[in-house]
TrEMBL record:
FAD dependent oxidoreductase domain mapped to chain residues: 5-375
PANTHER family cross-referenced by the UniProt entry: FAD DEPENDENT OXIDOREDUCTASE DOMAIN-CONTAINING PROTEIN, PEROXISOMAL SARCOSINE OXIDASE
Descriptive protein name: Sarcosine oxidase
Leading EC class: oxidoreductase
Domain of life: Bacteria
UniProt source species: Pedobacter cryoconitis
Record's keyword annotation contains Flavoprotein: yes
Classification via SUPFAM superfamilies: FAD/NAD(P)-binding domain (SSF51905)
UniProt cofactor(s): FAD
One GO molecular-function entry: sarcosine oxidase activity
Keyword hit for Oxidoreductase: yes
EC number(s) stated in the UniProt entry for this protein: 1.5.3.1
Pfam family, one: DAO
Record keywords, A-Z: FAD, Flavoprotein, Oxidoreductase
């Protein structure tokens, strides 16, 4: 049995960030989690960071999310320098509601002033068209744009960068899938699907949407776990070059067939081709209670049935593009009770959790991991955050 001071379970964006920060001040740190599966049919757990592009913005839904976004972005240069891996493209981020002003736009001025952030407001579709003529919005639309450092990040490369720095600081990286955590007098014993055991007095559970599955926590977190469908529109390298300055888009449409669109300029994927990425919520979205349902979704879910609908939504926003092909990807997100992450010590002493990121974790995963690491190392949250911000709610039977 291998022994450590702290074990991070879950090797996604939050877990890798937390492990990195813990490795700065602690001697024996392990992060345990499977790598991206090469064969979905043989995989047990999955994640949504198996991707090349995620939106980066600064002004969040409230002060907590805004601070998390800002704290993360402030670290990007250092992470890229220390790892030698470039994952951030600050092309800007555009938020638009086609129906006009909404709660987010009403709050934006206050939040921007609290953090000394700049943005440009747009009162109608004509103003938006003057600055963003590749996009098409109705005249009723209102919005705001953030410039650099907002834009997009590559989650695969961010994960790789975090783990590279973690390993530079002598952290230990295991590829196992943990299926059991058992408390004992010296802390915790964790057991993997592969039959390996590890021991530590402190555990950080950062298993994303799989946090409630297997035998990881005695009391389940209050989380809604749902599917998400991504449309990838393949374009030529020439089209990609023409759209290279296109800002990331958060489009708060809700027309009963699509809701909450996000869209990212063409980026190159591992197959060498360039794809525009678009995701949204659909009325047919599935909510999961059991791990078998999630596994079935990732392995054989029928996401392609929505290609036509998603294609039509994309072409209304970007009417001048001429994609060569359309593909879908299957993802997963979770939602907490209060709409913010759960970060804290559970009702099992020494067992900490960082989960419930509501679909926003990629853009602020470094800060979420940093908050969790600070709490474990110092027994308190970093300055400017309170326990109420990340209060843990448990599932009620």
């Amino acid at each position: 049995m291998k022994e450590f001071d702290i074990i991070v379970i879950g090797k996604g964006l939050v877990g890798s960030a937390a492990a990195k920060y813990l490795s700065f001040t602690n001697k024996r740190i392990a992060v345990i989690g499977p790598d991206e599966p090469s064969d979905y049919d043989k995989a047990t757990v999955f994640a949504s960071h198996y991707d090349q592009a995620r939106v980066q913005r600064l002004i969040g839904k409230d002060k907590v999310w805004t601070r998390l976004n800002l704290d993360s972005v402030k670290q990007y240069y250092t992470i890229q320098e220390q790892s030698g891996i470039h994952f951030h493209n600050p092309v800007g981020c555009l938020y638009v509601n086609p129906a006009g002003r909404d709660e987010y736009l009403n709050k934006a001025a206050y939040l921007a002033s609290q953090f000394n952030l700049d943005y440009t407001a747009y009162a109608n579709g004509k103003e938006l068209a003057a600055d963003f003529n590749d996009y098409h919005f109705p005249e009723s639309a209102q919005g705001l744009s953030e410039h650099s450092p907002s834009g997009l990040i590559n989650p695969r490369l961010l994960l790789k960068a975090q783990l590279a720095i973690f390993e530079q600081h002598k952290g230990t990286n295991f590829k196992d899938t943990i299926i059991d955590i058992t408390h004992h007098k010296r802390g915790y014993i964790v057991t993997s699907q592969e039959g390996h055991t590890y021991q530590a007095p402190k555990i950080l559970l950062a298993a994303g949407s799989f946090v409630n599955f297997h035998n990881l926590a005695a009391q389940k977190l209050a989380l809604q776990v749902k599917n998400e469908i991504i449309l990838l529109a393949k374009v030529t390298p020439e089209q990609a070059s023409e759209l290279a300055k296109l800002p990331s888009l958060l489009y708060e449409i809700d027309n009963t067939i699509t809701e909450g669109i996000y869209l990212i300029q063409p980026v190159q994927y591992p197959d060498g081709h360039y794809y525009i990425k678009m995701g949204c919520n659909l009325p047919e979205d599935i909510y999961f209670d059991r791990i078998e349902q999630v596994q079935d979704w990732f392995k054989k879910g029928n996401s392609d049935q929505f290609i036509h609908r998603l294609k039509q939504a994309l072409l209304k926003i970007l009417p001048h593009i001429e994609p060569l092909e359309y593909l879908t990807k299957r993802c997963i997100i979770n939602r907490s009770v209060h709409g913010r992450p759960y970060i804290g010590e559970t009702n099992q002493p020494g067992l900490y959790v960082a989960s419930g990121c509501n679909g926003y974790s990629a853009m602020c995963s470094d800060a979420i991991g940093g908050v969790a690491a600070h709490l474990i190392s110092h027994r308190k949250l970093p300055e400017h955050y309170s326990e109420k911000d990340f209060e843990i709610f448990y599932h009620q039977e």
